[in-house]
Design brief:
Blueprint: E1 4-9, E2 12-17, E3 21-24, E4 30-33, E5 39-43, E6 46-52, H1 54-70, H2 76-94, E7 100-116, H3 117-128, H4 141-147, E8 155-170, E9 177-179, E10 184-187, H5 193-200
Antiparallel strand pairs: 1-2, 1-10, 3-4, 5-6, 6-7, 7-8, 8-9
Helix pairs in contact: 1-2, 3-4
């Protein structure tokens, strides 16, 4: 099983993964390794995780990091616009047949995050009804601030929280599928972990 999971939070984005690699040999035997790093930092504000063929992912990420080192600065917005096109170019250039999927997490430190108020209300309801897996006798301050905003507000701007980006890109087109704030996603053969995240999320 291989999985990378990500969640867009109030104040950032988090990625997690397994570390297993399965190598299939010509005689149909398999070798397993549990020390593969599937999440890497591209810049101080952008991280990336992958599932799929290790050779294809390695080829794309190696070339990507080489291009990033040539530039004095790559901001979050530029990265989000450049990565899908560059990954598609590399994949077609090498004529890759094996598939690979990436999950990208980025933040913009100076730009406030914007969330849907109803999602925060749902989290608050889960806590107050004691349905949260984390048992507590207090309520997070950030939720209290959001709940105090007008019920007519569809969105709430969090001035002291950085804007986050979480999206998935799958070969061969690498068209970004964006995950909204306070939502989560998982890729790979273990992507059914989304059901566990839904059950145990706080």
């Amino acid at each position: 099983m291989s999985v990378v999971a990500g969640c867009s939070l109030f104040n950032g984005v988090i990625l997690a993964s397994d570390c297993r690699l399965t190598v299939k040999w010509p005689n149909n035997t398999k070798t397993y390794s549990d020390n593969v790093q599937k999440i890497l930092a591209l810049t101080p504000t952008t991280g990336i995780g992958f599932v799929g063929n290790l050779n294809v992912a390695g080829y794309i990420l190696e070339n990507c990091r080489r291009q990033i080192r040539k530039k004095s600065r790559i901001d979050t917005i530029s990265m989000n616009q450049w990565l899908p096109k560059y990954f598609r170019h590399l994949f077609l250039k090498r004529k890759c047949k094996e598939s690979v999927t990436f999950m990208v997490a980025s933040v913009i430190p100076g730009q406030p995050n914007i969330i849907e108020r109803k999602k925060a209300v749902k989290i608050m309801s889960k806590i107050t009804k004691e349905e949260s897996p984390v048992k507590r006798n207090w309520i997070p301050d950030i939720l209290v601030k959001i709940i105090r905003t007008s019920k007519d507000d569809k969105y709430v701007t969090l001035l002291d929280c950085p804007k986050g980006f979480l999206y998935v890109m799958k070969s061969p087109d690498f068209i970004p599928k964006h995950i909204k704030p306070l939502d989560f996603a998982a890729i790979g053969s273990g992507q059914n972990a989304k059901f566990a995240i839904e059950e145990y999320q706080d």
